[in-house]
Design brief:
By secondary structure, the protein is α+β, with helices and mostly antiparallel strands. The chain has a domain of 76 residues: Alpha-Beta Plaits, CATH 3.30.70. It contains 2 helices and 3 strands; from the N terminus they run H-E-E-H-E.
């Protein structure tokens, strides 16, 4: 009788241990899959933002002096930092032109692979951090 109980106890421990190991391994695979998926998503986000920034910067540098950083918020906005003086009369007109160039870049076929490209708002910022357009 004791041998039967001991054998049953050992089998039960082996089964519970096997389920625990399987669950642990399954959770580990799920965690790895999620981490790989998040890494892929971040790679895609970085690739898209890099392509947008490079294309916009290239187009603006061809036509305008004083273009600084481009700040981007994924699928929300692009802020073009400039050396424009918000108090100068011509700054608003130049900011409008910059806005149009950026919009043309976003609508060009070069960025067709970017998801939700039409969701970006475009802001042009003065040297003092004021939004001109």
């Amino acid at each position: 009788m004791k041998k039967g109980l001991i054998a049953s106890g050992i089998v039960a421990i082996m089964i519970v241990g096997g389920i625990g190991i399987t669950t642990f391994v399954s959770d580990s695979d799920d965690t790895t899959a999620v981490a790989q998926s998040e890494e892929f998503d971040m790679q895609k986000v970085n690739q898209e933002l890099s392509a947008i920034t490079m294309n916009v910067m290239e187009s603006l540098n061809e036509n305008y002096d004083g273009i600084g950083d481009i700040l981007s918020e994924y699928q929300k906005s692009l802020t073009i930092k400039t050396s424009l003086d918000a108090t100068e009369e011509s700054s608003k007109e130049i900011a409008l032109e910059i806005h149009k160039v950026v919009k043309d870049v976003l609508e060009s076929g070069e960025l067709d692979f970017v998801s939700n490209i039409d969701s970006y708002e475009i802001f042009v910022e003065s040297k003092d951090g004021d939004i001109i357009y």
